[in-house]
UniProtKB/TrEMBL annotation:
The keyword Ligase does not apply. Pfam families: Beta_elim_lyase. Homotetramer. Its cofactor is pyridoxal 5'-phosphate. It is an enzyme of class 4 (lyase). The gene is tpl. Its EC number is 4.1.99.2. InterPro entries: ArAA_b-elim_lyase/Thr_aldolase, Beta-eliminating_lyase, PyrdxlP-dep_Trfase, PyrdxlP-dep_Trfase_major, PyrdxlP-dep_Trfase_small, Tryptophanase_CS, Tyr_phenol_ly. It comes from the Bacteria. This is Tyrosine phenol-lyase. It catalyses: L-tyrosine + H2O = phenol + pyruvate + NH4(+).
C-alpha cells in the first residue's frame, strides 16, 4: 500500500463534478476538434489541464475578498500586496497585472529590441511569443539532461554556464537585455533550479551587466526542492530559501494563478527604479492604473494572503507529495514519464508511450485526447503542437513530446489521483490502437489553445 501525506486542511465547500459516459465523451472530444482546451468544463470529470487559476482558495482568502477596496487609485489592497511581495520575495517595486502574461508583455516591450537574444532555461509558450513579437530571439541554454526524460538529475532546470557564456561571446552582452530564468521549468517536467546554479548565473550576468529576470510562477515549489535536494538547505525554512533564491535576480514576472494561490492575477516586480517608472507608464495603456493593473481590489487582497499561505511548509509538502504519489503509481506500472517527478505535474513521455506515431502525427495531442475519451480526465499536450513554428514556418521539434497531468492546488484527493492512474495504466495496455492526428485549423500564434484536429487515416 502506498503511503501518502494527508491533507493539511479540511473540506468546507464541495462542488459536484461531471460523471459522463463514453458516448458523451466521444461527442464532446469530436466537437472540440480533439483539442482538450476546447472541451467544456461541464463535460470533464477530473480536470488536470492546468494548475493556473484552478486553486481552491482558503477561507482566509475568501474573507479577504470581502475587504476589497475598489478605489480606482491607491487601493489599500494594493499596499497589502506590495507589503507581501517585499516581505516574502524581497523586491522593491511591484506592478499588478491581470495575470502572468500581462507582466511578460510589459517586460518584453520595455527591454527587448529587434535583434536581441534572450537566453533561458527552456522556452515557455507565452514567454517566447512575447519575446519574438518584440523582435527578440529565444536561445535555450538549459543543461542537456533537461531534454532526457529518463535522466534522474535532481536539478534539470539548471542553466548550462558554458552555453550561456558561448551565447554572450557570440552575440555580445549588449544584445542580451536579460536572462529569462524559470523556477521551476514547466516544459522540462516541472524541474527545479539549484541555489548554486542561481548564484552562478547571477554572478556571470553581473560581470557582463546583464539582468536576470525570473519567471517566478512556481518559485515556492522550487524552494521546496532545494530544501529536499540541496546540501545545506535541509534545515532552512521555505521562506528563508525563497528569499535567498529571489536575491539572485533583478526582478520577476509572476502568474499569481499558481504559487500565489489565486484564480486570477499576477505582477511584475523589479528592483530598478527607472525600469519601474517606465513600466508604470506602460501598464496604464494595457492593464490599468499602476495600483491595480487590471485587478479588482479584492483580487489583490486574495493574492497578498495567498503569498503568505504558500510558504507554509505543510501546504507545500502536501502539494508536492500529491504529484509524487501520482508519478509513483505510473512508474510502478511501467508507464513512461519524465523523471524525477516535478513540482506541479506528472509528464507522460508520449514518444515512448506511442512509439508507432512519428512526431508530425502529434502523439502527445493524440494521447491527451484518448485519455479524455477513456476516462473523462482532461490533460494537456506539451510537445510539437505547443512548440509552434519558426520564422520560416517549420515546426519546432522539441526533444520532449509530453502530456502534462497538472495537479490543481488543494482541489483533488488521492482517490481522484488513483482514478487517473488506473485510467492511464489501462490505456497504456492498449496504446497501439491510438491513432495520430493532423491539423484542421491552426492559428499563427500560440496554436495549441485553439487548434483543431482530425484523425489521420
Amino acid at each position: 500500500m502506498n503511503k501518502y501525506v494527508a491533507e493539511p486542511y479540511k473540506v468546507k465547500v464541495v462542488e459536484p463534478i461531471a460523471v459522463t459516459t463514453w458516448e458523451q465523451r466521444k461527442k464532446a472530444i469530436e466537437e472540440a476538434g480533439y483539442n482538450t482546451f476546447l472541451l467544456r468544463s461541464k463535460d470533464v470529470y477530473i480536470d488536470l489541464l492546468t494548475d493556473s487559476g484552478t486553486t481552491a482558495m482558503s477561507d482566509d482568502q475568501w474573507a479577504g475578498m470581502n475587504l476589497g477596496d475598489e478605489a480606482y487609485a491607491g487601493s489599500e489592497n494594493f499596499y497589502n500586496l506590495l507589503k507581501a511581495v517585499k516581505e516574502v520575495y524581497g523586491y522593491e517595486y511591484v506592478i499588478p497585472t491581470h495575470q502572468g502574461r500581462g507582466a511578460e508583455n510589459l517586460l518584453s516591450q520595455l527591454t527587448i529590441k529587434p535583434g536581441d537574444y534572450i537566453p533561458g532555461n527552456m522556452y515557455f509558450t507565452t514567454t517566447r511569443a512575447h519575446q519574438e513579437l518584440n523582435g527578440g530571439t529565444f536561445r535555450d541554454v538549459i543543461i542537456d539532461e533537461a531534454h532526457d526524460s529518463d535522466s534522474e538529475y535532481l536539478f534539470k532546470g539548471n542553466i548550462c554556464l558554458d552555453k550561456l557564456k558561448s551565447l554572450i561571446e557570440e552575440v555580445g552582452a549588449e544584445k542580451i537585455p536579460y536572462i529569462c530564468m524559470a523556477v521551476t521549468v514547466n516544459l522540462a517536467g516541472g524541474q527545479p533550479v539549484s541555489m548554486q546554479n542561481l548564484k552562478d548565473v547571477y554572478a556571470l550576468a553581473g560581470k557582463h551587466h546583464i539582468k536576470v529576470m525570473f519567471d517566478a510562477t512556481r518559485c515556492v515549489e522550487n524552494a521546496y526542492f532545494i530544501k529536499k535536494r540541496e546540501a545545506g538547505y535541509e534545515n532552512k525554512s521555505i521562506a528563508d530559501i525563497l528569499k535567498e533564491m529571489m536575491s539572485y535576480s533583478d526582478g520577476c514576472t509572476m502568474s499569481g494563478k499558481k504559487d500565489c494561490l489565486v484564480n486570477i492575477g499576477g505582477f511584475l516586480a523589479v528592483n530598478d527604479e527607472e525600469l519601474y517608472t517606465r513600466a508604470t507608464q506602460m501598464v496604464v495603456m494595457y492593464e490599468g492604473m499602476p495600483s491595480y493593473g487590471g485587478l479588482a481590489g479584492r483580487d489583490m487582497e486574495a493574492m497578498a494572503r495567498g503569498i503568505y499561505e504558500a510558504i507554509d511548509y505543510h501546504y507545500i509538502h502536501h502539494r508536492i507529495s500529491q504529484v509524487q504519489f501520482l508519478g509513483d503509481k505510473l512508474i510502478e506500472a511501467g508507464v513512461p514519464v519524465v523523471r524525477p517527478i516535478g513540482g506541479h505535474a506528472v509528464f507522460l513521455d508520449a514518444r515512448k508511450f506511442l512509439p508507432h506515431l512519428e512526431q508530425e502525427k502529434f502523439p502527445a495531442q493524440s494521447l491527451a485526447a484518448e485519455i479524455y475519451l477513456k476516462s473523462g480526465v482532461r490533460t494537456m499536450e506539451r510537445g510539437i503542437v505547443s512548440a509552434g513554428r519558426d520564422k520560416e514556418g517549420n515546426h519546432h521539434k522539441p526533444a520532449l513530446e509530453l502530456v502534462r497531468l497538472t495537479i490543481p492546488r488543494r482541489v483533488y484527493s488521492y482517490a481522484h489521483l488513483e482514478v487517473v492512474a488506473d485510467a492511464i495504466i489501462d490505456l497504456y495496455q492498449e496504446r497501439e490502437k491510438i491513432k495520430g492526428l493532423e491539423f484542421v485549423y491552426e492559428s499563427p500564434v500560440l496554436r495549441f489553445f485553439t487548434a483543431r484536429f482530425k484523425h489521420v487515416d
